[in-house]
Amino acid sequence: MSEIITIANQKGGVGKTTTAVNLAASLAVAEKKVLLIDADPQANATTSLGFHRNDYEYNIYHVLIGVKKISDIILKTTLPTLQLVPSNIGLVGLEKEFYDNETRKGRELILKRKIDEVKKEYDFIIIDSPPALGPITINALSAANSVIIPIQCEFFALEGLAQLLNTIRLIKKTINPKLKIKGFLPTMYSGQNNLSKQVFADLTQHFKSKLFKSGDDEFIVIPRNVKLAESPSFGKPVILYDVKSTGSKAYQHLAQAILAS
Ligand SMILES: Nc1ncnc2c1ncn2[C@@H]1O[C@H](COP(=O)(O)OP(=O)(O)O)[C@@H](O)[C@H]1O
Ligand SMILES: [Mg+2]
């Protein structure tokens, strides 16, 4: 059975793409078959894996509007068990096109129907979503078994969270009853920063049962780590760039926690 996990938070710059790419890669290194779907028009997950605009002709946009099958556009990556559905800036403006041709109920399930065609080939499908609660994110949440919510350990971290949780609740009630919150993931944590500690304390107070734990029963926190920020410019997940970095280790712990759950 494949598990479909969407990484979502309507705020930009909180670590969604970093989490999607590095969780996907860490699961692949653990010999799981993984499909990473880049559903953000900014295509940062696609470029993080070393693909540039001219390297691929078709992207998720062509799949969503029905011009291509998802299996036609999947790219191989340097990790043998990690594959990618690329995105492209062409996704912008897509909402209108794919919403126009669909009934109200059908339009939230377009991505799910496309994923259904290939999901048996994979152990995990990880979806990176855009920084908005628009149609693409709704589709990504409607297609998923669960959602991981990265929370940046900075000022305003919890702002907008109520709105996201409401959206998740609504989708669960109407379109996707099986949707679960897999967990909240504190990102860019810095032990020297009091604000970071405060955000983490708030998270443990409100969502303790929804934080990930490592094998030794510690909460999993993604540290602020320069290797995580650098690796995309080399077109590599951090595990192939600096496997021993604190950032790489944290995402490996996250993958292990998910494999153990
Ligand atoms: N743990 C981290 N340590 C250092 N830099 C990070 C970390 N997580 C993300 N970044 C950097 O912060 C920026 C935003 O992260 P990103 O994953 O693209 O967020 P989002 O997808 O939510 O917009 C990127 O430049 C990324 O490289
Ligand atoms: Mg992103």
Automatic annotation (TrEMBL):
<dbReference type="InterPro" id="IPR025669">
    <property type="entry name" value="AAA_dom"/>
</dbReference>
<dbReference type="InterPro" id="IPR027417">
    <property type="entry name" value="P-loop_NTPase"/>
</dbReference>
<dbReference type="Pfam" id="PF13614">
    <property type="entry name" value="AAA_31"/>
</dbReference>
<feature type="domain" description="AAA">
    <location>
        <begin position="3"/>
        <end position="181"/>
    </location>
</feature>
<dbReference type="InterPro" id="IPR050678">
    <property type="entry name" value="DNA_Partitioning_ATPase"/>
</dbReference>
<protein>
    <submittedName>
        <fullName>Chromosome segregation ATPase</fullName>
    </submittedName>
</protein>
